[in-house]
């Protein structure tokens, strides 16, 4: 029954996007239909086809092994502080508990270096061109959009550097698509952070997050083209274009550059967490105090925290994507939390819910992991709009104007990805990782 609910939820989310569309009369239904087909085929392959499930598990194990390698550096630098809960070092010293700054966040630097090295040896450009070619030919979108979306599967805001020669002449619809794709997907270096947070309670989380990023890339195209349909004539429509990037002179230089970029991202994440957690805590104290008084006067039991209020907003959509009612409010609060506190805090709280066995159905954990996977929050809106506008200052107004629509499209895309997973997921799936 819940599989059917999830399948229906796909169209509920598309209907929400249609209601919010800038121009319902010119929606390109070829893009929408091919986007749905690609997502359904991929989800079916992963969740139903036996070889697809095996590929999923191989990817999961590979990511976990790479993550274990990343811990070598953190253990050397931070010693006992870098030991995850339950682990001992060579001297027999036990972990003193989970510390985000010393255990999870440093993996970002390692993965940034690894991605930079893979760019240098040609692996990443090759993968990006494969996805870009498929999007351009099947969905008939512009080559620049396809290339940016494909890059976003693997990297973050820097993906727009791959289309730098075309950024200045893109249409508003193209801008909406590349911004939505950036906020709906997850950079591989940050994905490692989520794996670290969850693998203790969710052993196959790495595979789910990789498949989620692929699905969300296509979902971002679908949702953005409904919310901001193409009304112009893109310069690269239907054309395959090569990725534009500056190759380092040596492999070692690429590793060093990647590490430096990873450090910048780490500092940015820490700064956002410090600022937003503090601001939200202040807002919660003010709103919560007023709300407590209202509850006393009216007898209501409303959760007046920002997380709780946004949870009420997302609750109908959480039910629509197929989360069982017993867990729907907890999951909807996580989705609301992601919107204001970033996905890092939301995944951290999901790990707590799993360790405490608060979620009653395994299906809820899987769908939550898909729905939360992405940069669809207000902080990244500023990052992606600002970062893209900095590359083409003369188009700042157009990029800023479509920014909020792109955030809505990205949020709906991540929920759509969860609904796709929910359409084929069963409680007996080997992808749970018992």
What's the layout of helices and strands?
Elements (H helix, E strand, L loop, with lengths): L1 H18 L9 H19 L2 H29 L21 H5 L2 H14 L2 H17 L3 H10 L11 H4 L4 H13 L3 H11 L6 H23 L23 H48 L7 H15 L4 H31 L6 H11 L5 H14 L4 H29 L10
Helix pairs in contact: 1-11, 1-17, 2-3, 2-11, 2-17, 3-11, 5-10, 5-12, 6-7, 7-9, 9-11, 9-17, 10-11, 10-14, 11-15, 11-17, 12-14, 13-14, 14-15, 15-17, 16-17
What does this structure look like?
Helix 1 (2-19) packs parallel to helix 11 and helix 6 (123-139) packs across helix 7. This protein has one domain (2-71, 101-432). The protein contains 17 helices and no strands. The chain has helices at 2-19, 29-47, 50-78, 100-104, 107-120, 123-139, 143-152, 164-167, 172-184, 188-198, 205-227, 251-298, 306-320, 325-355, 362-372, 378-391, 396-424. Helices cover 72% and strands 0% of the residues.
Portion of residues in beta strands equals under 5%
- Give the overall form: globular
Biggest sheet features = none
One letter per element, helices H and strands E, the order comes to HHHHHHHHHHHHHHHHH
Radius of gyration, whole Å = 21 Å
- SS field, number of helical segments: 17
Helix content range of the residues, please? over 70%
Structural class: mainly alpha
Number of domains: 1
Low-confidence stretches: none
Distance between the termini: 23 Å
DSSP strand tally: 0
Mean of pLDDT: 86
Offer a concise description of the structure.
Helix content is 72%, strand content 0%. With 434 residues, it is mostly helical.
């Amino acid at each position: 029954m819940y599989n059917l609910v999830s399948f229906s939820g796909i169209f509920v989310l598309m209907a929400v996007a249609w209601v919010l569309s800038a121009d319902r009369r010119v929606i390109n239904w070829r893009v929408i239909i091919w986007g749905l087909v690609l997502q359904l085929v991929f989800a079916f392959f992963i969740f139903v086809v036996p070889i697809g499930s095996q590929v999923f598990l191989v990817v999961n194990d590979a990511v976990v092994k790479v993550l274990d390698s990343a811990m070598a550096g953190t253990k050397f630098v931070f010693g006992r502080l870098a030991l995850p809960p339950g682990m001992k070092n060579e001297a027999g010293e036990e972990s003193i508990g989970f510390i985000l700054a010393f255990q999870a966040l440093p993996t970002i630097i390692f993965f940034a270096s690894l991605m930079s090295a893979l760019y240098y040896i040609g692996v990443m450009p090759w993968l990006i061109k494969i996805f870009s070619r498929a999007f351009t030919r099947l969905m008939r979108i512009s080559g620049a959009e396809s290339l940016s979306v494909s890059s976003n599967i693997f990297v973050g805001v820097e993906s727009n550097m791959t289309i730098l020669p075309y950024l200045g002449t893109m249409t508003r619809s193209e801008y909406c698509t590349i911004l939505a794709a950036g906020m709906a997907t997850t950079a591989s270096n940050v994905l490692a952070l989520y794996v670290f947070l969850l693998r203790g309670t969710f052993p196959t989380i790495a595979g789910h997050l990789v498949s989620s990023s692929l699905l969300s890339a296509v979902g971002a195209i679908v949702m953005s083209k409904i919310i901001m349909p193409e009304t112009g004539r893109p310069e690269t429509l239907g054309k395959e274009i090569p990725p534009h990037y500056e190759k380092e002179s040596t492999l070692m230089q690429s590793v060093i550059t990647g590490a430096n970029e990873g450090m910048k991202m780490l500092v940015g994440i820490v700064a956002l967490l410090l600022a937003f957690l503090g601001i939200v805590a202040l807002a919660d104290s003010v709103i919560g105090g007023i709300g407590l008084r209202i509850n006393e006067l009216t007898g209501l039991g409303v959760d007046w925290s920002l997380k709780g209020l946004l949870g009420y907003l997302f609750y109908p959509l959480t039910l629509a994507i197929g989360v069982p009612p017993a867990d729907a409010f907890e999951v909807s609060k996580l989705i609301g939390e992601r919107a204001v506190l970033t996905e890092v805090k939301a995944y951290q709280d999901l790990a707590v819910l799993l360790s405490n066995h608060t979620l009653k159905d395994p299906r809820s954990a899987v769908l939550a992991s898909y729905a939360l996977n992405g940069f669809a929050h207000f902080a990244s809106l500023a990052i992606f709009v600002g970062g893209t506008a900095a590359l083409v200052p003369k188009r700042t107004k157009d990029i800023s104007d479509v920014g909020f629509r792109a955030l809505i499209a990205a949020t709906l895309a991540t929920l759509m990805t969860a609904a796709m997973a929910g359409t084929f997921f069963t409680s007996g799936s080997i992808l749970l990782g018992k």
